[in-house]
Design a protein that fits this description.
- By secondary structure, this protein is of the alpha/beta class.
- The protein has two domains: 2-62 and 339-445, Aspartate Aminotransferase, domain 1 (Alpha-Beta Complex); 72-336, Type I PLP-dependent aspartate aminotransferase-like (Major domain) (Aspartate Aminotransferase, domain 2, 3-Layer(aba) Sandwich).
- The protein has helices spanning 16-25, 59-62, 71-83, 95-107, 122-137, 154-159, 200-212, 240-251, 302-305, 321-336, 339-360, 389-401, 426-445; strands spanning 2-4, 7-9, 38-42, 45-48, 53-56, 114-119, 141-145, 177-180, 219-224, 254-258, 282-285, 296-301, 364-370, 373-378, 404-405, 407-409, 415-418.
- The strands form four sheets. It has a seven-stranded mixed β-sheet with strand order 6-12-11-10-9-7-8, sandwiched between helices. Strands 3-4-5-15 form a four-stranded mixed β-sheet. It has a four-stranded antiparallel β-sheet with strand order 13-14-17-16.
- A hairpin with a 4-residue loop joins strand 4 and strand 5 (53-56).
- Helix 3 runs antiparallel to helix 10, helix 4 (95-107) packs parallel to helix 10 and helix 11 (339-360) runs parallel beside helix 13 (426-445).
- It is globular and about 60 Å long.
- It binds pyridoxal-5'-phosphate.
Length: 446
């Protein structure tokens, strides 16, 4: 048993009764990565029902950016709960919604005038970004990417560019969506040895599609993840996002950037698109916005957002006062504590440790990412690059047994992704990397 700050970290004890409850009363459609039950969290640690601690490098899939049960956020939530916790923004104003709309518009770095709207989940915000683009342009076609993940509601699912497991049995999907290749340099869709220099074939593909197969005057928007998340933290090459901006302008379409997973300092910038030289028309945010309370949003061109027909977007719970109040505090803390810079510092620690694994292990095919959003792609060997999904599962399971919580990603489910809270202590992050290394070694012997 390991000891961190006097707390037990280690061997998973089966919580059979919780698993039985889950089996009997929860739909099998809801996925489960770890057969474990957490009852408490504190910053980057999670505790199961027996009191054992686990280092959390998932942040609940990129959400608990300020750590679990952040005390400042708890105070903010309680304050708002005691004032007002629902009225519905369709019925009347309440300050947290309005303040958050102003604050998010200020934080979004596009130089034009901006407005915002709030929703409950990433999928819902994506869905609404597309409704806004269609209504504003009067056009129907949306260009999305292979490998993309945008959520599980019907439009978000239609935009999602991976069939299994998300889309199985759910056809037919929403009409008007065209998928195009994303520049996944390690597995180049155009069979280039490397594609880090530019994204010319991917961009030409879209231009050709728009000219030959589509009515170019029908394209309402291009929607893109600036770094593909569920597909395995795929960082696009230089010029890709700039090229999409140019194409959107040529077509008179909007460029929507889905920052649900990448946004709010995770990559070392407030928004991941800031690593490149573009200004999207609409940015979609979710996940980390209120550190786990449900809220998502779109922020973008005021001329677009202020001309959407009243009653055509919104919802009963959208921009809930408690979530909005906490989101305001999250934005304040990200800036006050310079957490984008911290993401870069923590990211360098992770990059160094992952590069070492790449040098030492034949099965580590690629390591990549920006800020703390890092991933390791496992293969049978560096030469063949054959995806090693079972090995990735073994490493995740072995890590859990040793007290480290990880999740996978990737088109081939062979990528281990790292999503630490930005508030994790550096020693704990190093300790997590030690456990990862030991688990990789043990999994190779198994
Ligand atoms: C890029 C991206 N967009 C949208 C979503 C959907 O968000 P939600 O699960 O909150 O609906 C996700 C979730 O993982 C995501 O990564």
């Amino acid at each position: 048993m390991n000891e961190i700050s006097g707390e037990k970290i280690g061997e998973y004890v089966d919580s059979a009764s919780y698993m039985e409850l889950r089996r009997r009363y929860v739909s099998s459609g809801v996925p489960l990565e770890h057969p474990i039950t957490f009852v408490r969290g504190a910053n980057a640690l999670l505790y199961d029902e027996s009191g054992r601690a686990y280092i959390d490098l998932t942040s609940g899939i990129g959400v608990a950016t300020l750590g679990h049960v952040n005390e400042e956020l708890v105070r903010e939530a309680v304050k708002q709960l005691q004032r007002l916790w629902h009225i519905c923004i369709h019925v009347a104003n309440y300050p947290p919604y309005l303040d958050l709309a102003r604050r998010l518009s200020e934080v979004a770095p596009m130089r034009f005038e901006k407005s915002a709207a709030f929703f409950n989940s990433g999928a819902e915000a994506v869905e609404n970004s597309v409704k806004i683009a269609r209504q504003w342009t009067g056009r129907k076609t949306i260009i999305a990417f292979d490998g993309a993940f945008h959520g599980r509601t019907y439009m978000a699912l239609t935009l999602t560019g991976k069939y299994k497991p998300y889309k199985v049995g759910f056809d037919p999907f929403v009409p008007g969506v065209e998928h195009v290749p994303y520049p996944y340099c390690y597995r180049c869709p155009f069979h280039r040895e490397e594609c880090t220099a530019d994204a010319e074939p991917e961009l030409s593909y879209i231009r050709r599609l728009a000219k030959v197969r589509l009515n170019p005057g029908d394209v309402a928007a291009i929607i893109v993840e600036p770094i593909q998340g569920e597909a395995g933290f795929i960082v696009p090459p230089k010029g890709f996002l700039e090229g999409l901006r140019e194409i959107a302008d040529e077509l008179g379409a909007l460029l929507i950037v889905d920052e649900v997973q990448t946004g709010l300092c995770r990559t070392g910038r407030m928004f991941a698109f800031q690593h490149w030289n573009i200004e999207p028309d609409i940015v979609v945010v979710g996940k980390a916005l209120a550190n786990g309370l449900p809220i998502s949003g779109v922020v973008g061109r005021a001329d677009v957002l202020r001309n959407i027909k009243p009653g055509s977007i919104g919802g009963t719970f959208t921009g809930n006062p408690v979530s909005a109040a906490v989101a305001l505090k999250v934005l304040e803390i990200l800036e006050r504590d310079e957490l984008c810079s911290r993401a870069l510092r923590l990211g360098r620690i992770m990059e160094k440790r992952l590069e070492e694994l790449y040098e030492r292990f034949e099965v580590v095919g690629d390591v990549r990412g920006l800020g703390v959003m890092r991933a390791m792609e496992l293969v049978s060997d560096k030469g063949s690059r054959r995806p090693a999904a079972k090995l990735a599962s073994r490493v995740v399971d072995e890590s859990r047994r040793r007290g480290l919580l990880l999740i996978k990603a990737g088109i081939y489910s062979n990528v281990i992704r790292f999503h630490p809270p930005l508030t994790i202590e550096e020693e704990l992050l190093e300790r997590a990397m030690d456990i990862l290394e030991a688990s990789l070694k043990a999994s190779l012997k198994a």
